Amino acid sequence: MNHSTKRVILLLTLCITGLLFSCSSYKNSEQGVATYDSIKANAYGADDYGMKKYVMAFLKRGPNRVNDSIEVARLQKFHLENIERLANEGKLVLAGPFLDNNDLRGIYIFNVSTVEEAKKLTESDPMIQSGHLIMELKPWYGSAAIMEVGALHKTLQKKHITD
Q: Half-sphere exposure of residue 68, counting CA atoms within 13 Å on the CB side?
């Protein structure tokens, strides 16, 4: 793993940890304490710490970069449709590009517990199939609350990502 990937992992971990600590400080206004929700914990696959296993994917610039803008647009459309399909199937809980133009292009967080499962999912991505992108997969242990991001996101989006 190169130095920039390690920095991104550290940054993501710090951001998500900060979010979790701010969420954990949320208090039930009537009781003054956070309330454990066993139904949600079970539905999200949370362990006793409210955590679960995921696989994080780092999307990187691949060896077969397509230069034809029409072909890149076509691949990008199919890439976004694949992201949406995986999210709708509950296999992808978080995805997004990095906003600079470095070799590290984006991340996925897969709702699977093994790298092998995630590898099969990544093989469905047209950008991976074409070699335009490659993925580095890492097992990751994070908050089960991330499972709620997709539903929350839908309440915030005015435009659909594939439009």
A: 5
Provide the residue type at 66 as one letter: V
Third-level CATH fold of 3-154: Alpha-Beta Plaits (3.30.70)
Q: List residues bridging with 92 in a β-sheet.
A: 110
Using DSSP, state whether 69 is helix, strand or coil: helix
Phi, psi of 95 (to 5 degrees): -155, 150
Structure tokens at 45: 């696959």
- Single-letter code of the amino acid located at 31: Q
The pLDDT value given to residue 19: 47
Which pTM was predicted? 0.77
Instruction: Determine the pLDDT at residue 4.
Output: 55
| Edge-to-edge strand list for the sheet holding 104-110 | 92-97, 104-110, 51-61, 133-143
Residue type, 160: H
List the chain residues with pLDDT less than 50. Answer: 10-11, 14-15, 17-29
Per-residue pLDDT reduced to its tens digit, 64-94: 987 888 998 999 999 999 999 999 999 999 9
56 is written with which tokens? 């994080």
Single-letter residue type at 52: K
Residue type, 82: N
Annotated domain spans of the chain: 3-154
